[in-house]
Design brief:
The protein is of the alpha+beta class and 440 residues long. Helices cover 43% and strands 15% of the residues. It has 17 helices and nine strands. A nine-stranded mixed β-sheet has the order 3-2-1-4-5-9-8-7-6, sandwiched between helices. A hairpin with a 5-residue loop joins strand 2 and strand 3 (153-160). Helix 14 packs antiparallel against helix 16. It is globular and about 75 Å long. It starts with a helix and ends in a 12-residue tail after the last helix.
């Protein structure tokens, strides 16, 4: 944190053209004022951010600080963010204390989210246009990779709003041997699955519509709907298959019938999405919504069907991370109407949210399964200014981090629920250790 927000920030200020001569506001002071100001209060005013600058020894007016939030200021912050992404904070052990996760060297969740930007920024970050999610003349796509086992976060990686999720540079080829890759359909890629398997990794995903499935024994194309309809109402499907018309990737096809209410809601959403995209939806597509269908290369002894179905729900944890960033970190909100000032705010808030995650991981927040990201983020925000004040004093900074860690240990847990058990309860219920805590 000290290295990125000080030395790296000063270097970025020079390379971006933000700092051309000696000024009282150097790169480190500029970045720290914005990062810690918005970290402490995502709706902080210019005066409040200037006060953070003053606490860092740089008495600059609110007007002067905001005036530096121009194109060069945005480039300075972008460079610091890019450098910060490479500083991945990990823990020495796997503290999640969930047996099914500990079967793997890591359980990596992937996701992307879009933030709309003012139209004036369309050359820097072009969007999709139209009425689709994330549409607009300018938009920024943010991708992350989160290890559910130890809390390691890679990202936020930035791309234009029109960029496909799987095109984001999230280091999919860097996963350790024995790791499980868990992602939704935006990251479905048979070639990537193949490479992962060759490196000793595992993958689990929903089956993407239109993917050709072949019977392993005969090589014949499998009539998926007919196969599923043969299942008993409470039956589970687990059979070896070959995926892809050309790839012929070996894997397992896993499926279970869903309740009628769930199927009806899926069909409603499918029809609504087809209407917005002005596309037709087939009867077969609608029929397939009656099942949850997964594919994986993990062997049955490592990951059973019921275990895979529960574990797949855990992918929502990374979506909750984005929800935390947007709802509580106000990532997609700004007081300003000035395009470059808005982009500076977005970069600075992303830096603050990344620092926040570093503090959570280093503070042993990931120890134990019952953790609340919302409560923990609030705890870190309340002490953001203390972090800023201690940044230049390693001993004092260590003390602040120890205080935060103590607070995280006692006050940032989720309650166990008898109705609609949370992810931790469902995962623990898969093995003997947590059955007393979970209600199926």
């Amino acid at each position: 944190m000290r290295h990125v927000l000080s030395a790296v920030a000063d270097e970025a200020a020079t390379k971006s053209g933000f700092l051309k001569r000696r000024r009282k506001l150097d790169g480190a002071s500029f970045v720290q004022a914005l990062v810690f100001g918005w970290m402490a209060d995502p709706d902080a005013t210019a005066e409040e951010r200037a006060q953070v600058g003053a606490s860092r020894g740089v008495p600059i007016s609110a007007y002067g600080l905001d005036k530096r939030c121009d194109e060069r200021g945005a480039e300075c912050l972008r460079r610091v963010l890019a450098a910060a992404v490479g500083q991945v904070v990990i823990v020495a052990s796997s503290p999640a204390a969930v047996e099914i996760l500990e079967r793997f060297s890591g359980v990596y969740l992937y996701d992307g989210s879009v933030v709309r930007l003012p139209e004036a920024l369309r050359d820097a970050w072009p969007g999709l246009g139209g009425n689709k999610p994330g549409a607009g003349a300018a938009a920024l796509k943010i991708g992350v990779r989160l290890d559910l086992l130890g809390g390691e976060l890679y990202g936020p990686v930035l791309g234009s709003g029109r960029e496909h999720d799987h095109a984001l540079a999230l280091g999919a080829s860097e996963l350790p041997e024995g790791a499980l890759r868990l992602a939704d359909l935006g990251f479905f890629d048979l070639e990537l699955f193949r490479l992962s398997g060759e490196r000793g990794g595992y993958w689990l995903s929903r089956l993407k519509g239109g993917t050709v499935v072949h019977d392993t024994a005969t090589g014949a194309r499998l009539d998926l709907l007919a196969c599923l309809r043969k299942l008993p109402r409470d039956g589970l499907l687990d059979r070896p298959v070959l995926l892809g018309a050309q790839a012929q990737l070996p894997g397992r096809l896993l499926a279970v019938r869903v309740p009628q209410a769930v199927a009806d809601e899926r069909r409603r959403r499918m029809r609504e999405d087809a209407r917005k995209r002005q596309r037709a939806v087939s009867a077969a597509q609608l029929a397939l919504t009656g099942w949850t269908i997964l594919v994986s290369n993990a062997p049955p002894e490592l990951l059973g069907v019921e275990e895979a179905l529960v574990l797949m729900r855990a992918r929502w944890q990374v979506e909750r991370l984005f929800d935390l960033w947007k709802r509580h970190g106000r990532l997609d909100k700004s007081r300003s109407k000035k395009p470059w000032r808005i982009l500076c705010e977005l970069y600075a808030k992303l830096l603050g949210l990344l620092v926040q995650h570093w503090v959570l991981v280093s503070g042993s927040f990931w120890a134990g399964p019952y953790r609340s990201l919302v409560k923990a983020a609030r705890t870190v925000r309340q002490r953001a200014l203390a972090l800023a004040d201690a940044l230049d004093d390693p001993a004092r900074l260590s003390e602040v981090l120890e205080v935060i860690a103590g607070c995280l240990a006692v006050g940032c847990r989720v309650a166990k629920r008898r109705k609609e058990p949370g992810t931790a309860q469902q995962l623990l219920a898969l093995t003997g250790g947590g059955k007393e805590d979970a209600v199926a």
